Each structure stands twice: as C-alpha cells, then as structure tokens.
Amino acid sequence: MILNVSVKSACVILAFSLLSVNGYAWELTGYSAAEYRYFQYESLNSEATQHNPSVVLAPEFYHDWDEGNQNILISAFLRIDSEDAERTHLDLREARWLLVKNDWELQLGIGKVYWGVTESQHLVDVINQTDLVENSDTEDKLGQPMINLSFFKNWGTVDLFVLPYFRERTFAGKKGRLRSQLVVESDKAQYESSAKQHHLDIAARWSHTLGDWDIGLSHFYGTNRAPLFIPNQTFTRLIPYYEIMHQTAMDIQHTRESWLWKLEVIRRETSLDTFTALTGGLEYTFYGVFDSNIDVGLIAEYLWDDRDNELATPFEDDLMIGTRLAWNDEQSTELLLGVIQDVDSSDSAWNIEASRRIGNRWKVSLEGRFFKSDQTNSTLYQIRDDDYIQLELARYF
After folding, report:
1. Rounded Cα gap, residues 68 and 54, in angstroms
2. CA-to-CA distance for 326 and 283, rounded, in angstroms?
3. Which 3 state secondary structure label does DSSP give 231?
4. Which of 252, 284, 345, 394 is the most buried (most CB within 10 A)?
5. Helix (H, G, I), strand (E, B), or coil: what is residue 226?
6. CA 318, chain centre distance (Å)
7. pLDDT band at residue 45 under the 50/70/90 scheme
8. What is the DSSP letter of 200?
9. What total number of domains does the chain contain?
C-alpha cells in the first residue's frame, strides 16, 4: 500500500488549519464501489489470473468560510485489489486550501489540474502524475503537491504553478495485468536530476475564450511524468528513469453549433530527445435523433508523433474513430465506443465505456479494453493478451 510522505505532511497541515476555522460545517460526499475485471485470455505472466475483483472507497470532505471566499477540500482514494499488491493503494487526490479574491485565486496543498480538449489522448496534461494501475487510458491521476496562483483578466487567465515534489508513476506488480513481461521496479527509480523527487518543477498557462474559440498556451519545466525504462543488471526487471524536460504546448477548441473542433500540440525537449506531437480532430453531435431524447456524437481524431518509434509511443501515426451516445434520461445513461487504428499496420486499441444510474445513490458502469498487435516492437504488443471487460457497482453518499 502506497502513501507518500508528502501526502502525510499535507494531512497534518490541513488538520491544524481546521482548528483555526470558525465552525465545523463539513460536507461529506464520495462513493464506495465493488469492481470485477474479467480478462479474456490467460496472461503471458503465469502468476496473473483472468479474474480480478477489487473494492474502492473514495470520500471527499469540503468546508468553506469567509462568505465562501476560502475553502478546504480533502479527497482520498483507496483501492484494495485481490490480486495485484501494487494496485492496492491509498492516495490523497486532493488536500488543498483555496483563497478566492476578486481577480485572483491562491491554492496551496495537494491538487488536481486538467489541461486538454481531445478525446483519444491528453498530450498537454502534464501537472499531475498518471495513476496507471487504475486504468490504461491515463485519465486517473495522483494528487500533486503544488502552489497555484491564478489571475483573471479581461485578456485571459494566467495560472502559475510551483510543484515542490514529484510523484512517481504507478505500475502493475508481478501478479497484475496490463503490464510488460518484465515487472517495473518503481522503488528503484532513477532521476536525471540530483534532487530526485525534490526537484522544483514550475509551469505557467494562459487561457482565454475569444467568441467560439477556447485557447490555451502553456510551458512546463521539470521532471517528465512519463519515464524511460532501463533493464536491471540481470535483465529481469525494468527500472524507471525520469528525465528533466521542457514542454511548450497549445490546446484549442472551436465550438460552432453542433461541431467541436479540437487540437493539442506539444514540443518536448529533454537531454536525450526533442520531438513534436499532436492530436487533432472533430466531434459532431446529432441532437434528438428520430424525435427522441437521444444525442449521438461522432468523433474523429488523428494522432501524430514525429519520433516514429512504437516503443516510445503507440500513437505515432494513428486514427481514432468513435461515437458518444447520451440518452438524456433520468438515469443519465451514456455510452462511448471508440477505436484507435495504426495507419501503417494492423495494430489497434478498442474501447467501450457505459454507465447508468440506479435510483439516487447507485451507479453501474461497464468498461472494455481490447488490444491487437502483431508488431513485436510496439508497446501494445506487451498487452496483446490483456483484453478485459470490467463491471463496477458504486454507491454514492
């Protein structure tokens, strides 16, 4: 089970902060869930099984005062996995104090920040570390210790970040699925910076809405959230290696009636490599099809990376096609289907996500991930037998 030292410190700081707050009108929300994953094929790793049940507890505490100009939010996440010890983990997703003024805000503690507009991958999103044991779609994030100062002007919003501590990426253990044949030894991670996890990362972003256009420009300097991998001396394990990087990025979304046009572009520089990558495309929505309440969205995106290296990224020249259905009913029924297809080979990754509320407090979710790869030099090849269907039943409180 993983609980970072910096996360513990944040809990202590916030606890003392609470003592100085007049009133204790806390709001407690969150959810608990039971999850079951069934893998269609036996694992290439003999220690992993096809059946993977687990449980989740995710409470959230919120309190505000000073006429709503100050608030504290603590959001925790605990998963207990029956098979993979590395997937059993505890994390503070958020533990932060927020001060709101007329044209600026200050946030201190552990927070979550999301940048980006595209569906298939999130190139510009670099503040929080990916919690990879949660899901292969990289959308689940670990809490990031930060100081965040935001200014709101008529010419745009400026966000400034100081990130004093780095969170290492999580990886499946020897009994886990969705991993390479060699287990990643996270506890032996290496760093380009001598400061290791204490390297002071910084970031800045300007964002603005101009009519139908939403634009964001950002720059990040610090530890690369995505590690390289080095074999150990016996070639039986992989050691993560975290570089220092500069990343300049742009994200744009244009909304025009039923159309959404999206683009994310990055330029990343490290001591070992410099490359450009982009994801761009569109989404068109048919509202109230066949005189019903159902909305149908059609999604198409192109993924490009000039490294032309399948081991660095599986999405160097790929096309994503998908559809999003929203029933707009009382149960908030939704369905998302998509496939990412390599333009130059038969490699592909299929995705299905569906959810529906049951009453006021329950929600059932279905997820499927399916992979096809015949190229031994592709990262998808390592998980070619890890197709799975996942069912989750959650209760909200």
Report:
1. 38
2. 14
3. strand
4. 394
5. coil
6. 20
7. confident
8. -
9. 1
CA proximity to 32, closest of 389, 388, 384, 361: 361
Residue 162 class from Cβ within 10 Å (0-12 exposed, 13-18 middle, 19+ buried)? middle
Question: Measured between alpha carbons, how far is 390 from 393 in angstroms, rounded to an integer?
Answer: 10
- The neighbour count for residue 94, using CB atoms within 10 Å, is 21
Check residue 24 and give its pLDDT.
Answer: 53
CA distance linking residue 40 with residue 252, whole number of Å? 38
Instruction: Return the DSSP state at 147.
Output: E
Q: What percentage of the chain has pLDDT greater than the value 90?
A: 85
C-alpha 264/C-alpha 315 separation (Å) is 14
CATH number of domain containing 209: 2.40.160.10
Query: For 275-285, what is the mean pLDDT?
Result: 98
Instruction: List alpha helices for the chain, DSSP H.
Output: 5-19
Pair of tokens at residue 132: 């990879």
> What does the alpha-carbon distance between residue 311 and residue 230 come to, in Å, rounded to a whole number?
13
DSSP 15-72: HHHHHTSS----EEEEEEEEEEEEESS--SSTT--SEEEEEEEEEEEEEEETTTTEEE
> What's the average model confidence in pLDDT over 373-378?
87
Find the domain containing 108 and state its range.
5-396
Query: What is the Cα–Cα distance from 323 to 326, expressed in whole angstroms?
Result: 10
pLDDT for 313 equals 82
Tokens read off for 237: 């394990």
In the numeric block, the tokens 């159309």 are attached to 259
* Owner of token pair 């044991």: 133
